[in-house]
Amino acid sequence: MLACIGCEWHLRPSSDETSSDELAIDRYDQLEQRYLTTGDFAALQQMNTEYPTETRMLIENVLQLGPATDPQMKSKLLLFFQDSTLQLLVKDVEREYADLSDIESQLSMSFNQLQQLLPDIVLPHVYTQITSLDQSIVAGEGFLGISLDKYLGKDYPLYLKYGYSERQRSMMTRSFIVPDCLGFYLLSLYPLDEGDTTIVARDNHMGKIQYVVNRVMGKHIFENDPVRRVERYLAVNKNVSIQQLLEER
């Protein structure tokens, strides 16, 4: 699994693949909101029974509260979010993202476009969550978890309070959800080789990923030297497919 923590790249083990004809977003965040603001035990039960993998990942990998099987975890999770700042965050997510139909539509179109370039790609299961500013996107082979609390706008007061840079905040907006989903999902499928530890190797690989995102989105979301190098390379090597590009080392 791949996670974006504080807009940095971190690798985790991947999950099993799932397949779907169309992309729909599961509103796991709404169950979280119900439990974390009202203590509704029925919401917690639904989280555990309908979304066991998402709940385990949230507790163990994202919030790092301990084993999800801990008998005291339900109270630990609730207590963790009783902080006034986190309660505000939960409510702001609820208000800002009451409707996700635009994101759902953009995701469906974008992944349909991506399938034209990579016909064998598996459409991921997509869900939304609240992670107390820990992660932007959690991605693996077959799933995408979108942390809505990391997309509340470049001028969101808590981002300013906690010292996010202007560059970071410029990408913490609604318009970056779909590009980030595409980028992190591609990176989970085509990860950087463990032996490629140099800055040049990392930049080149990210340039390929970001080039594909730009191409799928039909605009230059990412503009930097590695992306421009990919553009020049493909202008000369016109027979190189996107899959070949991503697999090249």
Give a description of the structure.
It contains twelve helices and six strands. By secondary structure, the protein is α/β, with parallel strands linked by helices. The chain has two domains: 2-189, no CATH class; 199-247. A hairpin with a 2-residue loop joins strand 5 and strand 6. The chain is elongated, with a radius of gyration of 19 Å. It starts with a strand and ends with a helix.
User: What's the story with the biggest beta sheet?
Assistant: 6 strands, mixed
Distance between the termini: 21 Å
Q: Could you tell me the strand content as a percent range?
A: 5-15%
- What portion of residues is helical? 40-55%
What order do the helices and strands follow? EEEHHHHHHEEEHHHHHH
Largest sheet strand order: 2-1-5-6-4-3
Averaged pLDDT? 89
Question: How many structural domains?
Answer: 2
Q: What is the radius of gyration computed over CA atoms, rounded to a whole number of angstroms?
A: 19 Å
What structural class do the secondary elements suggest? alpha/beta
Query: Which runs of at least 5 residues are low in confidence (pLDDT < 50)?
Result: 1-20
Shape label: elongated
Please report the total strand number as a whole number: 6
Helix segment tally: 12
Question: Which key phrases capture this entry?
Answer:
alpha/beta, 12 helices, 52% helix, 249 residues, six-stranded mixed sheet, single chain, 2 domains, disordered N terminus
